[in-house]
């Protein structure tokens, strides 16, 4: 999955400024405007009087002003919409008493738009947070369809018949200007969100389980508590039922990310498409109503060995112990920091559970025996860590190879290995004069870096320069895994800077140009992430990144066209980048992708051309020579949502450049 971002779009932070300069307005087509449904039962009958309709509209706006808790991804736009609707209230109060046919018709049309706005705002307050982040383009289209509809209604208001004050008339005129000039914008947080979503939804990249990214997403989407996740699960079920048109891939993306968030909190992953979220032990006893306090808040299973932690909350012993072993020192339910990690048996609750089961003839499920005890795993890791310092080469080789496999298996192993003190020893082995040990050491660190705490430990040990050294001089697999390790570590912003200052970008560019297919992909993802840092854009350009990216565009069989265009879009926001990529042959290549590329190719290529043309009209004139205009017109009706938006903006830019 590739996310193309707008390097040129920045938040103005000035929602009140209606005189804002607009370089390329993006009109909303009537087909899109009419996509917002209004339920028939919500529309008043024809015999309603004008005053009644006005009162209804005012009540709806006042109700909307009280809604709180908008989803973070749409929060700013929700507040902007409500603020604009509130401007209508003085106007509505002044038209009370007018009841002509034209006034009644106007108020009815206005009410329909207000109802559509109400439905959208309620969705942004109660809908699935994951879906609205995943499909933010569609959500923005809905907002702009509301703005377009509202503007069309207001400009046709029968002002000649209505006796309203000049002040109110000026407010409505100003509102129409705001609605007309409303633009979609992607701020820095949205860019970070887009990058994180790209990584976690990747099917081929093992780093899609990176806990740092998942935790950052959970924080941005406010899905950090068990209660949040329960509410999100209900919202997703409702979404799937209401939106039968959701494709399987989108549903799977949403459910997979939900399960990653659940795993982060120690909850069991479920397939909510086919399974109700109920206790597994009751799948054959659906008539029983299980007391809520009998369920472990982590697993949602009936507790067999309930224990009390420092906050007074009760959990299944095995589940809470796993939570602690994973490095958490908080209560999963309350998120409070714990004074201690001691567990006290809850005998009273255990007796109540047993009595209830006996009374209801319910058989408590038996625990599955674990093949390896936790102590055995700790002992195994300790022995491996000890062997890393062995004076025998073969023992070191065996140890680091086994540790590489353990670190790949699960999050618990990554925590165990780090807690046993393996990271400093592994960093030392990066400079060991043995290619096999180097390869396994850097790959083990790659696997360990999936854990956010480990990322910091690895970088604090000074591993980055050694990883860059292996990237330059190691064997093929070691170089590829070094690039992957740099990508993982660069999820921390301070590491983006460190990698750039440590001269890590030139060897990544070399791998991009001369590496295997896998090596190119590893280098490409690392360079994309590093280029989010402004200083690194210049370093990448100086390292010669442009030519390898252009080479990737020439070979469609490599399957990296969208990724290459995504980096070129970032570079196009840099003056030196525009100079390096703005050659005539590249403009022709962009136009060719706009003409006959895949839907995603067209979207990416249009975005790059818009970025270039927004800064220099000569790029627009060059594209016109290759017939771009007619291809853009076609995209405005048949492209992806984002492609349509970019094509419309580019057409308006062309109109300004050529006065078409």
Tell me the strand order in the biggest sheet: 2-1-3
Termini distance?
A: 37 Å
Strand content: under 5%
Helix content: 55-70%
Number of strands: 3
Let me know the largest β-sheet.
3 strands, antiparallel
Poorly predicted parts: 1-47, 184-189, 274-287
Radius of gyration: 29 Å
Structural class: mainly alpha
> Helical segment tally?
34
Shape: flat
The whole-number mean of residue pLDDT values reads 79
How would you describe this structure to a colleague?
This protein has 660 residues and is mostly helical. It is built from 34 helices and three strands. The protein has helices at 30-33, 50-64, 75-86, 88-94, 101-126, 129-134, 136-155, 166-181, 188-200, 211-220, 226-242, 248-264, 317-325, 347-359, 374-388, 393-409, 411-419, 422-429, 435-448, 452-460, 463-473, 476-489, 493-501, 505-514, 517-530, 534-542, 546-554, 561-571, 575-581, 584-596, 599-615, 617-625, 628-638, 641-658; strands at 306-308, 314-316, 344-345. The protein has a three-stranded antiparallel β-sheet with strand order 2-1-3. Helix 16 (393-409) runs parallel beside helix 19 (435-448). The longest helix has 26 residues, at 101-126. The radius of gyration is 29 Å and the shape is flat. The two termini are 37 Å apart. It comes from Arabidopsis suecica (Swedish thale-cress). GO terms for molecular function: ubiquitin protein ligase activity. ARM repeats lie at residues 421-463, 462-504, 503-545.
């Amino acid at each position: 999955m590739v996310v193309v971002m707008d390097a040129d779009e920045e938040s103005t932070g000035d929602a009140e400024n209606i005189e804002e300069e607009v370089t390329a307005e993006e009109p909303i087509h009537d087909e899109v405007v009419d996509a917002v449904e209004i339920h028939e039962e919500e529309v008043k009958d024809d015999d309603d009087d004008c005053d009644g309709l006005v009162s209804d509209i005012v009540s709806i706006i006042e109700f909307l002003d009280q809604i709180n808790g908008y989803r973070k991804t749409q929060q700013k736009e929700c507040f902007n919409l409500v603020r604009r609707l509130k401007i209508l209230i003085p106007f509505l109060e002044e038209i009370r008493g007018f009841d002509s046919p034209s006034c009644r018709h106007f108020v009815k049309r206005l009410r329909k738009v207000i109802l559509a706005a109400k439905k959208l705002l309620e969705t942004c307050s109660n809908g699935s947070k994951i879906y609205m982040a995943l499909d933010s383009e569609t959500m923005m289209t809905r907002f702009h369809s509301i703005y377009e509809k509202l503007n069309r209604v207001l400009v046709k208001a029968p002002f000649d018949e209505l006796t309203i004050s000049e002040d109110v008339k000026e407010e409505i005129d100003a509102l129409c200007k705001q609605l007309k000039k409303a633009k979609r914008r992607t701020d820095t947080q949205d860019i970070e969100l887009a990058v994180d979503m790209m990584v976690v939804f990747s099917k081929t990249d093992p780093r899609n389980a990176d806990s740092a990214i998942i935790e950052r997403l959970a924080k941005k989407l406010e899905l950090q508590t068990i209660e949040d996740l329960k509410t999100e699960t209900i919202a997703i079920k409702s979404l799937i039922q209401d939106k039968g048109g959701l494709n399987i891939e989108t549903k799977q993306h949403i459910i997979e990310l939900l399960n990653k968030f659940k795993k982060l909190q120690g909850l069991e992953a479920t397939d909510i498409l086919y399974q109700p979220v109920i206790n597994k032990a009751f799948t054959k006893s659906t008539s029983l109503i299980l007391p809520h306090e009998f369920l472990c808040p982590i697993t949602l299973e009936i507790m067999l060995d309930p224990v009390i932690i420092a906050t007074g909350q009760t959990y299944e012993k095995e589940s809470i112990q796993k939570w602690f072993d994973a490095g958490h020192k908080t209560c999963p339910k309350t998120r409070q920091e714990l004074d201690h990690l001691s567990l006290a048996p809850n005998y009273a609750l255990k007796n109540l559970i047993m009595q209830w089961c006996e009374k209801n003839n319910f058989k408590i499920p038996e625990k599955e025996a674990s093949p390896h005890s936790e102590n055995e795993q700790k002992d195994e890791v300790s022995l491996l860590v000890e062997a890393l310092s062995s004076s025998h080469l073969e023992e070191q080789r065996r140890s680091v190879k086994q540790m590489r496999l353990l670190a790949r298996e699960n999050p618990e192993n990554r925590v165990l290995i780090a807690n046993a003190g393996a990271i400093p020893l592994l960093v030392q082995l990066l400079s060991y004069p043995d290619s096999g040990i180097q390869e396994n050491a850097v790959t083990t660190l790659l696997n360990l870096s999936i854990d956010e705490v480990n990322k910091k430990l690895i970088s604090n040990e000074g591993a980055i320069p050694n990883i860059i050294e292996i990237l330059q001089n190691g064997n093929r697999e070691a170089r590829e895994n070094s690039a992957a390790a740099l990508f993982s570590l660069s999820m921390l912003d301070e590491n983006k800077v460190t990698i750039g200052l440590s001269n890590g970008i030139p060897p990544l560019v070399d791998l991009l140009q001369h590496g295997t297919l896998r090596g190119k992909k590893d280098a490409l993802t690392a360079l994309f992430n590093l280029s989010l840092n402004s200083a690194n854009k210049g370093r990448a350009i100086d390292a010669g990144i442009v030519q390898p990216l252009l080479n990737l565009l020439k070979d469609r069989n490599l399957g990296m066209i969208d990724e290459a265009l995504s980096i070129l879009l970032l570079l196009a926001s840099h003056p030196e980048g525009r100079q390096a990529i703005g050659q005539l042959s590249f403009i022709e290549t962009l136009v060719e992708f706009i003409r006959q590329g895949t839907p995603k190719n067209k979207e990416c290529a249009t975005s790059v051309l818009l970025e270039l043309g927004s800064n220099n009209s000569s790029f627009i004139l060059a594209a016109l020579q290759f017939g771009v205009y007619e291809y853009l017109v076609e995209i405005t009706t048949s492209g992806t949502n984002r492609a349509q938006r970019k094509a419309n903006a580019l057409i308006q830019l062309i109109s300004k450049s050529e006065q078409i």
